[in-house]
Amino acid sequence: EVQLQASGGGLVQAGGSLRLSCAGSGFTFDDYSIGWFRQAPGKEREGVSCITSTNGRTYYTEFAKGRFTISSDNAKNTVYLQMNSLKPEDTAVYYCAATPGSGTLIAGWYHYWGQGTLVTVSS
To answer: Which region holds residue 8: left if phi is over 0, alpha if psi is between -120 and 50, else beta?
Structure first.
């Protein structure tokens, strides 16, 4: 059974940092790409970043560039999202998801989803 477990969310002040983790099991991690998405109250889910496991290529949504960094530790079946310089508008539930092959920031391409972790940034 494919499972994704997102963790690391919490309450942080504006300008602070958090590192989210996404631990995967039940699938061959090296053959999948992992994406991070977020959904704020009343808004649609949007892509944040993804990493293609086969070649380590990374993609970022415009608002994440320069502030967020995605990385992968395939030995631990875990993908991280380091978030720096957080802003109140980054407040959302963050989800990780897995899809075979190349990464994308389109949520509909992803087969498997974790349960989400809440990030709250106070001003």
So the answer is: left
